[in-house]
Specification:
This protein is of the alpha/beta class and 143 residues long. The chain has one domain (4-142): Glutaredoxin. The protein is 47% helix and 19% strand. It has six helices and five strands. The chain has helices at residues 4-20, 30-36, 53-66, 85-93, 119-123, 127-141, and strands at residues 25-26, 43-49, 75-80, 104-109, 112-117. A hairpin with a 2-residue loop joins strand 4 and strand 5. The longest helix has 17 residues, at 4-20. The protein is globular. It starts with a helix and ends with a helix.
């Protein structure tokens, strides 16, 4: 019989792969987050990934689509809410002024939060609208 952890790992892996195969670097520990986010130069996008339907049907496809834009983030990272709990909690410490939300997208510049696209902006929109929210933020905060 498969353990719960092994089962979840197997179920979750394709959700991780959808981002990593598109260039996102996973931050899986609090230490990785601490070493990476405050030191990231330029425009950084952090995807707070999730197992929910709106992550699968909207968030991940929209964020991948947004990377086709002329201006795009210099750094792209992801943490997985509910899976890599310590990493996600540590990342959220950098999202000052925003309530925990997953899925969500944090736009940071030189290690500081600029804006967030939160779950309520994702689950009530279509893929193109979500992609446009992201690309508008890239345009606004790029140098």
């Amino acid at each position: 019989m498969m353990s719960y952890e092994a089962y979840m790992s197997q179920v979750i892996q394709p959700m991780r792969d959808e981002l990593t195969r598109n260039g996102f670097q996973e931050l899986r520990t609090a230490e990785e987050v601490e070493q990476t986010l405050p030191n990231a130069k330029g425009l950084t996008l952090v995807v707070v990934n999730s197992v929910c339907g709106c992550a699968a049907g909207l968030a991940r496809p929209a964020v991948v689509h947004s990377l086709n834009h002329a201006k795009k983030p210099d750094n792209i990272y992801t943490v997985f809410a509910g899976q890599d709990k310590e990493a996600t909690a540590k990342a959220r410490e950098y999202f000052e002024g925003y309530a925990p939300s997953s899925p969500s997208f944090a736009i940071m510049k030189d290690g500081k939060i600029m804006t967030m696209i939160e779950r309520h902006q994702i689950e009530n929109n279509d893929l193109q609208t979500i992609s446009n929210l992201l690309t508008s933020a890239y345009d606004k905060y790029s140098e």
